[in-house]
Amino acid sequence: MKNLKANLALYGFGYFFIFGALATLIPFFPLVLQSKGLAPSRIGFLLGSYELFSIIGLMVIGHFYDRFRSPRRTIFTICFLAALTLYLISSTASVILLITLTLALGFVVKSPSALLDAHYGQIVPNAEKSYGKIRLFGSIGYSLTALGIQLTGVVDPSRPLTVFYVYLLMIVSTMIVLPLLPRAEQHRTEHKGPSFMTGIRSFPRVYWIGLIIAFFNQLGMSGHYTFFSLLISNKFGRSDVGGLWAVGPVLEIPLFFFSTYLLRKLGIRTLWIIGLASGFIRMQVYSLAGGLLPLYLVQLIHSAAFGFNHLCIVTLITRYVAPDNRGMAMSLYSALGLGLSLFVGGFLGGWVLEMTNYTVLFQILSLFPVLGIATSAFFLKSEGDPEPSPAAG
After folding, report:
1. Among 46, 113, 49, residue whose Cα is nearest residue 78
2. Which ranges of the chain have pLDDT less than 70?
3. How far is residue 270's CA from residue 311's CA, in Å, rounded to a whole number?
4. Relative orientation angle of helices 71-91 and 95-109, to the nearest 10 degrees
5. What is the pLDDT of residues 235-290, one digit of tens each?
6. By three-state DSSP, how is residue 159 classified?
7. Distance separating alpha carbons of residues 59 and 68, to the nearest angstrom
8. Closest Cα partner for 310 from 228, 235, 221, 370?
9. Cα(107)–Cα(349) distance, rounded to whole angstroms?
């Protein structure tokens, strides 16, 4: 029990720093690209392509994670490559290099958090019961980092190296924690995981349903991740967006803390529908807001719009996907449920911005959570607990 508590604490620190790094990158990266001369519509196209490369990266890295069984070393290496690539992006003045390096960053930057989730599910006994309480440290890390940036003004997107320096601080802290994580017996290098197609065929039907729902949810959320900072900068003339991004994860803390209770009382389907409805409301407010106050207030439902989606799909993977395939299942979710949706949203949003404006953009994106609600209502059981596949054991 003592070792388990120590290991959980290490995972908590890992989540804290990984998501602290993302709090430096995600809000400010579109503004960094804009500071280098790219128009908002072109940023949408580039970030859509960035997400396409993230899909490829998650699939490739997830496959090697399961096959060669070196999770800590894999995550450590990817963190290093992400930091190096962001440094090169911050330093370059060439548009061609900027585009190339942005795509390279997309290939590596999302895998560390996805693989840490997979590692947690494989190592920790009864991971489903404790995951929410440990994952909340990621939300704390994200909020505190974003708030610290807002209060200190240490990040200025017109000076891209300031983004890199704070990102480097958080990612190096992550890299210090990684070697301290437990090494499980099932990660022996001589044991080779299942082939890609064997792993894919073993996934139960409910996993694919969850993947579709997650896709619709995140396609709506692409309005937040890709275009929200640009909205604040271009409509309201503000580049100090850290405070707005800090508010969102605050309510994730009680959400993840009470995740086991919420799943037991409400079930996966109800939680997902609440989250999808929150995403719809959020995009509507982005579309119609005439000032910053409604935008601050609507960030409070980020915990449902993102948090319930993530909690539900991770629960499905932990419950119904065989342990040997969870690295691929988690990476496939990150690639298709998160990456492909943001790829589509980036290109769709870039095209809409070329033709119209932010109001129309967010109105269109608000339709996709509605499709997710319909999918949840028709294809998930009311209790959200379908019979597990035999493959999940």
Report:
1. 113
2. 1-2, 63, 65-70, 128, 184-199, 252, 256, 382-393
3. 12
4. 160
5. 888 877 888 888 877 776 777 677 778 888 888 889 899 999 999 999 999 999 98
6. coil
7. 14
8. 221
9. 21
- ∠ CA 20-24-28 to the nearest 5 degrees? 155
348 vs 341: CA distance, rounded Å = 10
H-helix or E-strand spanning residue 320:
helix 309-320
Other beta carbons within 10 angstroms of residue 208's beta carbon come to 15
Alpha-carbon distance of 122 to 117, in angstroms, equals: 9
- pLDDT, tens digit, 9 for 90 and up, residues 26-78: 899 999 999 998 988 899 999 888 888 887 887 788 767 666 556 778 888 89
Residues 6+ apart with CB under 8 A from 159: none
CB-CB contact of 160 with 36 (8 Å): yes
- Give residue 393's identity as a one-letter amino acid code: G
Q: How many whole angstroms separate alpha carbon 185 and alpha carbon 25?
A: 35
| Residue 182 near residue 305, CB atoms below 8 Å | no
Farthest-apart Cα atoms in the chain, separation? 60
> Tokens 């994860």 correspond to what residue?
249
